[in-house]
TrEMBL record:
Keyword Cytoplasm: yes
Residue ranges constituting the SAM-dependent methyltransferase TRM5/TYW2-type domain according to the UniProt record: 89-341
Protein name: Predicted methyltransferase
One record GO biological process: tRNA N1-guanine methylation
GTP-binding among keywords: no
Keywords noted in UniProt: Cytoplasm, Methyltransferase, S-adenosyl-L-methionine, Transferase, tRNA processing
InterPro entries reported for this sequence: MeTrfase_TRM5/TYW2 (IPR030382), SAM-dependent_MTases_sf (IPR029063), TRM5-TYW2-like_MTfase (IPR056743)
Pfam families to which the protein is assigned, alphabetical: TRM5-TYW2_MTfase
One GO cellular component term: cytoplasm
Gene Ontology MF term list: tRNA methyltransferase activity
Length: 351
């Protein structure tokens, strides 16, 4: 059976019947099958995590946000049945991405694309992703099914997001991380999203907190779509989001004052920008969320800590974890640092 990564809530098994009945009546359930988490929890895929948690709290049911892989109900076949050796793919709105493996021939990927189109009638294009290239982390794509349109709208945590899969970086598998970070932000914080892409981190934070967020990206297409996404979701935002387009290393000379929290989601290059992040961190202390692609968690911590020790006044590793698996040998890890930098809090929450 086909599977998808999806936002979910985790509840106690003893609350399962009441929870599923309430969420079904509220129209918050998806076509994905709930699954067990450990011995005493159930992960329930939902289309709006915040609304689901709020609804359950009114009935005294405790729930927490999560992100898991779920089987899809009622799909006609398994991808591995159609094409042996292939099972996983990434769905972004109406577009599917398949990662290229040189051991699998192109005809097999074409059969896979045809199978996916039968499983998911809403899919309009299937691309084979050969890799990611350049400073802007743009994917190298080959069309193997459909109309070839690379722009779609995807839904995440109650937000709608324009994504151009050919000209911007977006990974739906990080939606659990975006929920985690947004839950840590407090109202009144000043947040910098250094490599915002189409702004999923920034907009989720602003939708949940009265925070001031600066969303920056060097990629002009990403910055343009970030602005479009801010307009698309403006009625949902409690905080404010300002879009900038700049090389992250130049931000200390462009932005006024320091930030309470800096998100550094550039897995291949983030340590190179820790110096700029420390210059934008508060002398009283700030939090950096640094994402890095490495062979192990220890190597990720070491690379980030070495740079922080060289460029920050003080730093402490608060936590670290695997965010997502990237390949059989590498994963994207997130290391949360508390640092003392060189900036002061600005008098106003502006640039």
């Amino acid at each position: 059976m086909a599977s998808e990564y999806h936002d979910c809530i985790a509840i106690k098994l003893t609350d399962a019947d009441r929870t599923l009945k309430m969420l079904r009546l509220a129209g918050l359930l998806t076509n994905l099958k709930p699954r067990r988490l450990g011995s005493d929890e159930l992960a329930v895929p939902v289309n709006n995590v915040e609304r689901a948690i709020s609804a359950l709290l009114t009935e005294g049911i405790s729930a927490r946000p999560c992100k898991e892989t779920f089987d899809v109900k009622g799909r006609p076949s398994k991808l591995s049945d159609e094409v042996p050796g292939l099972s996983g793919f990434l769905i972004i709105g109406s577009i599917v991405l398949l990662n290229y493996n040189s051991s699998v021939g192109i005809p097999a990927y074409v059969r896979a694309a045809e199978a996916i189109s039968r499983m998911y009638p809403r899919v309009t294009s299937v691309f084979l992703k050969l890799g990611t290239t350049g400073e802007l982390r743009l994917p190298q794509l080959v069309l193997i099914y459909g109309d070839g349109n690379t722009i779609t709208i995807t839904k995440e945590s109650g937000l709608r997001l324009y994504v151009d899969v050919a000209r911007t970086y977006f990974n739906p598998r990080l939606s659990g991380e975006r929920l985690r970070i947004s839950s840590l932000v407090e109202s009144g914080e000043r947040v910098l999203d250094m490599f915002c892409g189409v702004a999923p981190f920034s907009l989720l934070i602003a939708s949940r907190r009265r925070a001031s967020v600066i969303a920056n990206d060097l990629n002009p297409y990403a910055a343009a779509l970030a602005g479009a996404n801010a307009r698309l979701n403006r009625k949902l935002l409690k905080g404010n989001v300002t879009i900038t387009r700049s090389d992250a290393s130049a931000l200390p000379s462009l932005l006024k004052g320091g930030f309470d929290r800096i998100i550094m989601n550039n897995p291949t290059s983030s340590p190179k920008f820790i110096e700029a992040a420390c210059q934008l961190s508060l002398a009283s202390g700030s939090i950096l969320h640094v994402y890095y692609l490495a062979e192990s968690e220890d190597l990720a911590i070491r690379a980030i800590a070495e740079e922080a020790s060289r460029t920050c006044k003080e730093f402490t590793v608060v936590s670290s974890r695997k965010a997502i698996e990237y390949s059989p040998s590498k994963s994207i890890y997130v290391v949360d640092l508390e640092v003392k930098g060189y900036a002061r809090r600005p008098n106003s929450l502006s640039l």
